[in-house]
């Protein structure tokens, strides 16, 4: 017993005991619903209630690790989303979360709730832990003694929001009167129309205008973006090296989008069915992973694979998408190239750009730490337009820098590459450390506050959740008429609710929910981080 009492005085023991017990609690399923990482917060409430409070520095460390990793992960998608379908994603993500924020401010003024409590209620009602981190940072700077009230509000509102979103998504097929299977079928049809897959096609050369010309000259005409990768002549198959002189009745194998292949058909000759696999093994293809640091950021034109090795890169796979390479395409860590050529050519190409896949599992601690240091520095730069002494704080600065670096991929001349596994670990570790710290501090006052006004706080949190969910669904399903699978994923993103995404993904065997979640999530997350602080500042 004495040993236990001694251990409970050690912050590191308390921290990891809370994380372990909270993770177990978060994994418990009830009607298919789990608390997930929020289980750590509720476990920490218990420890805090009995006086085991974690140091503020630990909480801030978890916050910085978490938001910086989130920024690195969201950066590549966020700015691309704004350029492509930014208006619709902004409409859903910002309008729904803003509606919840307006409801929170109105209810706070009517019921005379404190600014810190209202900010916490909003974060819990929209199940947004990063927003709670931002509110706690703002409260800590303005009224440090009120920081625990924000955590209490978060803890009161969170459970209802979690359950409400999951149940709503599960009911979407009945609400919209369409089966999940039919919705999945319609989604697949939309995807095929918008993003056709790469195809292979063989052409017999019958156009005399190309007799005697080299493949390099043919490609140099830029007739099509399809890539010619193999040639059959007199039954012999060879890789389509640039210096090969074309002859009548040559069979050319090309890879590209259907419309690009159609352009080749119009100028080369008839489409034919041929087996272009080389039985001798002289021509083969292999997947090569870009993993050498010297290659990062170089273009396909600079690589000159044709000229140097006689190899042809026919496809590039990046982030789940596959496309034909072009000369200005910059290679990024983890890109997967389909290379066609002789065994010697493929080996030479692989030696140049890959065969060091282990590097893709390595994180440069120098650049990772430098990015965080820069983020903390940015967080403490004064913001004169927001009043004297105002600044983003360590969390806000780290998130902003992470977002920019995730998009740019470099810090000055130094490229920043953080493996997905490392980003996931830092994100999850930072999250549970932050939740453990915030929960332990909230535990000091949680019971007394709930006993005093628990029902009122619960109703306010529920109202904020219902307003946000209702506005999001109206925009998604009625105004923009999204598929219910995409709508469920987008709703989960608006509410930053991973269990909701799990429920949407279980409706049908399709990636619609995951794609919509990834698209809207950065917008919803950033909007709530800003709005949560705005709520506190407006009511303060």
Domain module count: 2
Could you report the average pLDDT, rounded to the nearest whole number?
Answer: 79
Record the strand order, biggest sheet. Answer: 3-2-4-1-5
The amount of helix comes to: 55-70%
Biggest sheet descriptor:
5 strands, antiparallel
Q: Which residues form runs of ≥5 with pLDDT under 50?
A: none
What fraction strand?
Answer: 5-15%
Would you kindly provide a written description of the structure presented here, covering whatever features stand out?
- The protein is an alpha+beta fold and 540 residues long.
- The chain has helices spanning 2-7, 11-27, 38-49, 56-84, 86-111, 115-125, 129-142, 147-170, 172-176, 180-194, 215-220, 258-268, 300-303, 305-309, 343-353, 365-379, 393-408, 420-479, 484-494, 498-505, 512-539, and strands at residues 199-204, 227-233, 236-239, 251-256, 271-272, 284-289, 312-318, 321-323, 336-341, 410-411, 414-415.
- A 5-stranded antiparallel sheet has the order 3-2-4-1-5, covered by helices on one side. Strands 6-9-7-8 form a 4-stranded antiparallel sheet, covered by helices on one side.
- β7 and β8 form a beta hairpin.
- The protein starts with a helix and ends with a helix.
